[in-house]
Design a protein that fits this description.
Elements lengths: L2 E7 L8 E9 L4 E5 L4 H4 L1 H11 L8 E7 L11 H11 L11 E3 L2 E2 L5 E2 L4 H11 L2 E5 L3 H4 L6 E5 L2 H8 L7 E3 L22 H13 L3 E4 L6 H7 L9 H12 L13 E2 L7 H5 E2 L5 E2 L1 H4 L4 E4 L7 H5 L2 H6 L1 E5 L4 E5 L3 E6 L18 H8 L4 H5 L3 E4 L5 H4 L9 H19 L18 H14 L3 H17 L7 H9 L6
Parallel strand pairs: 3-4, 5-8, 8-9, 11-18, 11-19, 12-15, 15-18
Antiparallel strand pairs: 1-2, 2-4, 6-7, 9-10, 13-14, 16-17
Helix pairs in contact: 2-3, 7-17, 7-19, 18-20, 19-20
Length: 499
């Protein structure tokens, strides 16, 4: 027959909308026309497909070929439609039975020799195909990622000729990957709190941040251990659920950075030269997720915070509050999850020695004020905890024995605190508690104390509520049902601001 259709899927954020590829052969001068809002990468597929079909031993029709990618209003980009287009041409020219394409979704890029190459976003395709009851055909290199969805029926091949042989009934020409249970990686963490010497105040702040999902600012001289402390945070966080693992892996798949399923929370540490699209998301064509989405369900570490562009930092304000980011373009409006824990580190002044022992800082007050002024007040107001990290004495560094707990011991307390939160308020962490729920378990003395000190410190309404959330986490770590005055006092000590 001169008309054939093949199912495929586009990649639009975390969504994988269905695309039907229709191929029509008609009389006329040989040529290939493609319609349906294809981007440059899709339009170039006609040359790849032609060479792949010929080099795989099949005949490329010497007729007028019209290819429609429906729905027409959905922009299509990338080389993921190559395989489906090639199969549609072969089916329309009767080199392949069209009935073999029923309930089959094809995704893959073709090389000129007919080999199948990897595409990004396959995990989202596998989820969507499983929900639609379709079989999914992917390149061999994408098979392991597609199999992460236990309900999916995944087939894979390494060449176009192997795909055609499979569709013709030669099952030994293609490997069938049966569905399986999700495998969780439990590899050891690269950093452990036992590596930290001293820094008991910072360790305490890190434990509170992990227990309640709070953001944290570490301020101190160079070499004090700020980066090491931040790198230890994933080791004391609870393991990711199976649903979160799939979501995190799907986000990394969108940028061609495959991440195996793992219970470990992601840790992202972009350089301070990162642009706003790199941090928030964006780019040409269909916007891609940024670092804040790649850190979803994990940690985003911003070292040398004042060195980041001010406009880049300001773009963090809304995601910190909402836990998601909307990227609007002329043709697209995408939502990416961004529920991350922000850990930031900075020096107290340009030379970094202000307040150190001995104090060798030579920065003028104007230089110090200008340096700390690179971070806006509204952004600082959104950070739950802020603490000074002083340099560790050399005598302590030379000690062979560790003077602090390991991450495993701290994680047990964090898990217990998280369990109390779950019993009391469901899946909502203390860092995200609504203001209406913050006064419920607050003692009268603690409330009066916070009001008095808060007025003296000129706390904003947002800062006031964040102090209450931190105090609630301190109470959970202490297994206390009521937030006492001492817990509020400790929470107020974490409102230090760099100056």
């Amino acid at each position: 027959m001169a008309l054939a259709s093949v199912d495929s899927r586009a990649s639009v954020g975390l969504q994988s909308p269905a695309v039907r590829i229709e191929v029509h052969l008609s009389a006329g001068l040989p040529g290939l026309a493609m319609v349906g809002l294809p981007e440059t990468g899709v339009r170039e597929s006609k040359d790849r497909v032609r060479s792949a079909i010929i080099n795989s031993g099949f005949t490329f029709p010497q007729q007028r070929i019209t290819i429609n990618l429906a729905p027409a209003e959905l922009p299509k980009e990338g080389a993921r439609f190559d395989l489906a287009i090639a199969l549609g041409i072969l089916a329309a020219s009767q080199q392949l039975p069209e009935s073999a394409l029923d309930e089959l979704c094809c995704v893959g890029e073709l090389g000129l020799s007919g080999d199948l190459r990897a595409v990004k976003g396959v995990l989202s395709d596998s989820l969507a195909a499983a929900q639609a009851g379709q079989r999914l055909l992917v390149p061999q290199v994408n098979a392991s990622e597609a199999r992460l969805v236990s309900e999916a029926r995944v087939f894979s091949a390494s060449t176009l000729s192997a795909v055609v042989a499979f569709l013709r009934g030669q099952y030994d020409a293609i490997e069938h990957h049966a569905a399986h249970e999700i495998a969780v990686s439990n590899a050891a963490f690269s950093h452990d709190l036992s590596q930290v010497k001293g820094q008991f105040g910072a360790r305490r702040a890190l434990e509170i941040a992990a227990a309640g999902g709070h953001s944290l600012l570490l301020c101190g001289p160079p070499g004090a251990g700020k980066t090491l402390l931040a790198s230890c945070l994933p080791s004391i966080l609870p393991p990711l659920s199976a649903e979160r693992q799939l979501q995190v892996t799907a986000l990394h798949s969108l940028i061609n950075q495959p991440r195996a399923l793992s219970s470990q929370p992601p840790f992202r540490a972009p350089h301070h030269s990162a642009t706003r699209p790199a941090l928030i998301g964006g780019g040409s064509g269909i916007p891609r997720p940024g670092e804040i989405s790649l850190a979803h369900a994990g940690v985003l570490f911003l070292d040398e915070l004042p060195e980041f562009d001010r406009h880049v930092l300001e773009s963090l304000r809304e995601p910190l509050e909402s836990g998601e980011v909307w990227i609007a373009r002329a043709k697209h409006q995408l939502r990416y999850p961004a529920q991350f824990q922000l850990i930031a580190a900075m020096n107290p002044c340009p030379c970094g020695q202000k307040g150190a022992k001995p104090d060798t800082c030579r920065c003028t007050p104007e230089q110090t004020a200008r340096y700390s002024g690179r971070i806006s007040g509204p952004l600082l107001d959104r950070l739950d905890l802020s603490i000074r990290v002083d340099a560790v004495p050399l005598t302590l560094l030379q000690a062979n024995s560790a003077d602090g707990e390991c991450s495993a011991a701290v994680r047990q307390r964090v898990l217990a605190a998280r369990a109390r939160q779950t019993i009391r308020q469901g899946e909502v962490l203390n860092a995200n508690l609504p203001a209406t729920d913050l006064q419920t378990h607050l003692s009268a003395n603690a409330q009066a104390f916070l009001q008095t000190v808060g007025e003296r410190m000129a706390l904003s309404a947002r800062a006031y509520h964040r102090v209450l959330r931190v105090a609630r986490t301190i109470a959970d770590l202490a297994d206390a049902s009521e937030v006492a005055e001492t817990m509020v006092a400790e929470a107020l000590t974490y409102r230090q601001r760099p100056n």
